[in-house]
Design goal:
Length: 160
Protein backbone atom coordinates (compact mmCIF):
# COMPACT_ATOMS: atom_id res chain seq x y z
CA UNK A 1 0.00 0.00 0.00
CA UNK A 2 2.86 2.37 0.71
CA UNK A 3 4.23 1.91 -2.83
CA UNK A 4 0.76 2.38 -4.33
CA UNK A 5 0.22 5.56 -2.31
CA UNK A 6 3.62 6.92 -3.33
CA UNK A 7 3.02 6.13 -7.00
CA UNK A 8 -0.45 7.66 -6.79
CA UNK A 9 0.94 10.86 -5.30
CA UNK A 10 3.63 10.97 -7.99
CA UNK A 11 1.03 10.48 -10.76
CA UNK A 12 -1.20 13.19 -9.30
CA UNK A 13 1.73 15.55 -9.00
CA UNK A 14 2.74 15.05 -12.62
CA UNK A 15 -0.76 14.96 -14.13
CA UNK A 16 -2.72 17.38 -12.00
CA UNK A 17 -0.14 19.76 -10.68
CA UNK A 18 -0.64 18.74 -7.02
CA UNK A 19 2.32 19.72 -4.91
CA UNK A 20 3.19 17.98 -1.65
CA UNK A 21 5.77 19.69 0.52
CA UNK A 22 6.48 16.66 2.71
CA UNK A 23 4.88 13.43 3.78
CA UNK A 24 5.20 12.57 7.47
CA UNK A 25 6.16 8.92 7.54
CA UNK A 26 8.27 9.35 10.63
CA UNK A 27 6.25 7.43 13.26
CA UNK A 28 5.17 3.83 12.81
CA UNK A 29 3.77 1.26 15.21
CA UNK A 30 3.02 -2.38 14.52
CA UNK A 31 1.37 -4.92 16.81
CA UNK A 32 0.76 -8.63 16.35
CA UNK A 33 -0.60 -11.67 18.22
CA UNK A 34 -0.20 -15.39 17.66
CA UNK A 35 -1.49 -18.42 19.54
CA UNK A 36 -1.04 -22.13 19.33
CA UNK A 37 -1.08 -25.33 21.35
CA UNK A 38 1.79 -24.14 23.56
CA UNK A 39 0.34 -20.72 24.40
CA UNK A 40 0.24 -17.28 22.88
CA UNK A 41 2.66 -14.51 22.13
CA UNK A 42 2.17 -10.85 21.31
CA UNK A 43 4.50 -8.17 20.10
CA UNK A 44 4.73 -4.48 19.39
CA UNK A 45 7.27 -2.41 17.48
CA UNK A 46 7.41 1.36 17.35
CA UNK A 47 9.82 3.45 15.29
CA UNK A 48 10.31 7.17 14.76
CA UNK A 49 12.68 8.70 12.21
CA UNK A 50 13.45 12.37 11.74
CA UNK A 51 16.40 14.17 10.13
CA UNK A 52 18.75 11.19 10.46
CA UNK A 53 17.67 10.43 14.04
CA UNK A 54 16.06 7.09 14.89
CA UNK A 55 14.18 5.96 17.99
CA UNK A 56 12.64 2.49 18.11
CA UNK A 57 11.34 0.08 20.70
CA UNK A 58 10.10 -3.47 20.61
CA UNK A 59 8.26 -5.68 23.06
CA UNK A 60 7.51 -9.39 22.77
CA UNK A 61 5.54 -11.10 25.53
CA UNK A 62 4.49 -14.73 25.86
CA UNK A 63 1.65 -16.25 27.88
CA UNK A 64 4.25 -18.20 29.88
CA UNK A 65 5.69 -14.99 31.37
CA UNK A 66 8.71 -14.96 29.10
CA UNK A 67 9.48 -11.98 26.92
CA UNK A 68 11.65 -8.96 26.37
CA UNK A 69 11.65 -5.21 25.77
CA UNK A 70 14.29 -3.55 23.62
CA UNK A 71 15.14 -0.08 22.38
CA UNK A 72 17.46 1.64 19.92
CA UNK A 73 18.20 5.36 19.58
CA UNK A 74 20.50 7.17 17.15
CA UNK A 75 21.20 10.90 17.13
CA UNK A 76 23.16 12.30 14.20
CA UNK A 77 24.53 15.84 14.19
CA UNK A 78 27.21 17.40 11.98
CA UNK A 79 30.50 16.16 13.40
CA UNK A 80 29.03 13.64 15.84
CA UNK A 81 26.83 10.60 16.21
CA UNK A 82 25.56 9.00 19.39
CA UNK A 83 23.68 5.73 19.62
CA UNK A 84 22.30 3.53 22.35
CA UNK A 85 20.54 0.21 22.39
CA UNK A 86 19.52 -2.32 24.93
CA UNK A 87 17.36 -5.27 25.82
CA UNK A 88 15.73 -6.30 29.09
CA UNK A 89 14.29 -9.77 29.60
CA UNK A 90 11.26 -10.33 31.81
CA UNK A 91 13.50 -12.11 34.34
CA UNK A 92 15.40 -8.81 34.83
CA UNK A 93 18.54 -9.63 32.84
CA UNK A 94 19.63 -6.76 30.61
CA UNK A 95 22.36 -5.55 28.30
CA UNK A 96 22.92 -1.98 27.10
CA UNK A 97 25.38 -0.42 24.67
CA UNK A 98 26.19 3.24 24.08
CA UNK A 99 28.34 4.64 21.27
CA UNK A 100 29.54 8.21 20.95
CA UNK A 101 31.52 9.34 17.93
CA UNK A 102 32.88 12.75 17.02
CA UNK A 103 34.91 13.74 14.01
CA UNK A 104 36.24 16.80 12.24
CA UNK A 105 39.27 19.07 12.01
CA UNK A 106 41.64 16.12 11.57
CA UNK A 107 40.39 14.24 14.63
CA UNK A 108 38.22 11.19 15.27
CA UNK A 109 37.00 9.91 18.63
CA UNK A 110 34.81 6.87 19.36
CA UNK A 111 33.74 5.49 22.73
CA UNK A 112 31.74 2.28 23.12
CA UNK A 113 30.46 1.09 26.49
CA UNK A 114 28.59 -2.14 27.21
CA UNK A 115 26.90 -2.94 30.51
CA UNK A 116 24.67 -5.68 31.83
CA UNK A 117 22.32 -6.20 34.74
CA UNK A 118 24.90 -7.84 37.00
CA UNK A 119 26.93 -4.61 37.05
CA UNK A 120 29.66 -5.53 34.58
CA UNK A 121 30.85 -2.76 32.28
CA UNK A 122 33.33 -3.05 29.42
CA UNK A 123 34.21 -1.26 26.22
CA UNK A 124 36.77 0.58 24.16
CA UNK A 125 37.86 4.10 23.42
CA UNK A 126 39.52 5.21 20.17
CA UNK A 127 41.17 8.57 19.52
CA UNK A 128 42.85 9.45 16.24
CA UNK A 129 44.34 12.81 15.33
CA UNK A 130 46.28 14.23 12.44
CA UNK A 131 49.12 16.66 12.86
CA UNK A 132 50.59 17.65 9.52
CA UNK A 133 51.87 14.46 7.87
CA UNK A 134 51.54 12.36 11.02
CA UNK A 135 48.50 10.45 12.22
CA UNK A 136 48.46 9.41 15.89
CA UNK A 137 46.10 6.84 17.34
CA UNK A 138 45.25 5.46 20.76
CA UNK A 139 42.89 2.59 21.49
CA UNK A 140 42.01 1.52 25.02
CA UNK A 141 40.12 -1.70 25.72
CA UNK A 142 38.54 -2.32 29.12
CA UNK A 143 37.34 -5.82 30.00
CA UNK A 144 34.50 -6.85 32.34
CA UNK A 145 36.90 -7.11 35.25
CA UNK A 146 37.84 -3.44 34.80
CA UNK A 147 41.32 -4.18 33.47
CA UNK A 148 42.49 -1.89 30.67
CA UNK A 149 45.00 -2.24 27.87
CA UNK A 150 46.09 0.74 25.80
CA UNK A 151 47.60 0.59 22.33
CA UNK A 152 49.20 3.61 20.68
CA UNK A 153 50.75 4.17 17.31
CA UNK A 154 51.58 6.77 14.72
CA UNK A 155 52.12 6.84 10.99
CA UNK A 156 54.07 9.53 9.20
CA UNK A 157 53.60 10.00 5.49
CA UNK A 158 56.40 11.26 3.31
CA UNK A 159 55.02 14.43 1.71
CA UNK A 160 56.96 13.69 -1.52
Amino acid sequence: MKTFASLSMMALTIAGGLSVASVDASARTRSWNASGARGSVSGMRSATRSNGDVASSRSVQGSNGRGFNSYRNVDREPGSTSASRGVTLNNGASRNTTRNTSYGDGAYSNDVTHSNSNGATWGRSTDISRDGNTVNGTVTHTNRAGESATYTGSVTRDPN
